[in-house]
Design goal:
It is built from 3 helices and 30 strands. The protein is mainly β and 439 residues long. The protein has 2 domains: 104 residues, no CATH class; 303 residues, Neuraminidase (6 Propeller), CATH 2.120.10.30. Strand 22 and strand 23 form a beta hairpin. The protein starts with a helix and ends in a 17-residue tail after the last strand. About 4% of the residues have low confidence.
Length: 439
């Protein structure tokens, strides 16, 4: 009798295990699923980075074929994806750093320069009691934002040599092999960074004060060029962030370009060491009938062919500009929600981008920049289903880059984040939607 009861219990238990697999549907992307996968940030129970420290907000492609990135959280880590082993390797703690945000570049001899700071993915809680008066909400928001940086020495510029550091196995408590070049701007995080490889200068914008700085690699010296922005704008969609551009781009003649006040493109000219405003305005939602100080900022700026520069705005638009002709063209907006969270130029003449806001799931899109100009394609959500071994739907992403072979790498920015990658070459399903997804 007891044996019969035990058999029934086992049968019910097995049925319970198999029922979800039969009843629940995974959410899949709108293309061949084998082209999408992800990797853990280290080896589980050995070198893997703790969940709270895994969000990725900076990725870069290196000339050695590897992908380098950095995490944000309670403690920032340096990571590397090795195409030879198909694994992500943690390269140690970035000592004294909680985050690295769009601030990794490659310099001469393969050196990797890293700008650090606080974890800028965090959305702070604002004061509930705000005094009455004109623009008092904005004043109080600024006080609350600045309070987070009280006592903060400032984000540092560090340098990593892959030829030395990549050879070691790092445990979670190990420190990355980094050389400290100093504090970029006191009391600020490094928020975006670019390098002029010819002149060997690194440029950056800080948060929250939007200070534009320069680092001369040869003389090992910093130079503060003042505020890149004058207006205090909180245009969102994340209202707890001041609107500061998240990208810079260095032009062939040494000028440094990004968006500025009122959404107008502006550039720093090293010849006169001044910031000049253009008449090119990035696309966005401008509240022209209201007294409103908000304006979008540049999220990404990438080189295309010849004199073309492709960019995105925090309102979710994609644009193209020709700096020499001072002309800008709006290419469109892939989804209703705002923000382009990450964007990279593929080897197949397509821009790949992650779009979406914090309160919803992000989606992958592409835009064809070839002569065929086929426009946008919707690849859907980044859902990986390798059941029963592993499965995950990525909701939030904040970094992208393109590997030497054309693979698109996408850094997840949620807790327990993974490094996703998509292999181009397949096509989106007819009718766009994946027929296996629940509706």
């Amino acid at each position: 009798m007891n044996m019969h009861i035990n058999k029934l219990i086992i049968l019910f238990f097995l049925a319970g295990l198999s029922y979800p697999a039969l009843a629940q549907k995974s959410v899949n992307p709108h293309f061949e699923a084998h082209r999408l996968d992800y990797r853990d940030l280290g080896y589980p129970a050995a070198t893997e980075i703790a969940a709270d420290n895994t969000p990725i907000a900076s990725l870069m492609t290196h000339s050695n074929g590897r992908i380098y990135g950095a995490t944000s959280g309670k403690q920032s880590y340096l990571i590397s994806y090795d195409y030879l082993t198909n694994k992500v390797y943690p390269l140690g703690q970035i000592e004294g750093s909680q985050g690295v945000h769009n601030s990794m570049v490659e310099g001469a001899n393969g050196l990797v320069y890293i700008g650090t700071g606080l974890n800028e993915l965090i959305q702070i809680n604002f004061s509930k009691d705000v005094p009455h008066g004109r623009q008092m909400i904005e004043y109080q928001m600024w006080k609350d934002i600045k309070a987070r940086y009280e006592g903060f020495e400032g984000g540092r510029l560090l340098v990593y040599d892959p030829s030395e550091g990549d050879q070691q196995v790092y445990l979670p408590e190990d420190k990355a092999k980094l050389k400290d070049l100093g504090v970029a701007v006191a009391g600020n995080s490094v928020y975006a960074m670019a390098i002029d490889e010819v002149r060997q200068k690194i440029y950056g914008i800080t948060y929250p004060d939007a200070i534009f700085f320069e680092y001369n690699i040869a003389s090992k010296s910093f130079k503060n060029h003042g505020k890149w922005l004058q207006t205090m704008s909180y245009s969102g969609p994340e209202r707890s962030w001041r609107s500061v551009p998240r990208a810079l781009i260095c032009l062939a003649d040494g000028k440094v370009l990004s968006s500025g006040d009122d959404g107008l493109m502006q550039y720093f000219d090293p010849e006169d060491a001044k910031i000049h405003v253009t008449k090119m305005r990035i696309p966005g939602e401008y509240w022209i009938t209201q007294k409103y100080e908000g304006y979008p900022v540049a999220e990404q700026l990438l080189f295309g062919s010849e004199n073309e520069i492709y960019g995105s705005s925090s309102d979710g638009f994609i644009f193209k500009l020709d700096f020499e002709k001072q002309k800008m063209a709006v290419l469109g907006k892939p989804m209703v929600e705002r923000r382009v969270r990450g964007m990279t130029m593929g080897k197949d003449q397509k821009l790949y981008m992650i779009c979406g806001e914090k309160n919803n799931i992000c989606r992958l899109f592409s835009y064809d920049v070839s002569e065929s100009h086929s426009g946008f394609e919707d690849y859907g959500v980044l859902g990986v289903d390798r059941s029963p071994y592993y499965a995950k739907i990525g909701y939030q992403f904040d970094a992208m880059c393109t590997a030497a072979d054309g693979t698109i790498f996408i850094g997840e920015s949620d807790r327990r984040a993974k490094l996703f990658f998509y292999v181009p070459g397949g096509s989106v399903f007819p009718g766009v939607l994946n027929p296996t997804n629940p509706r």
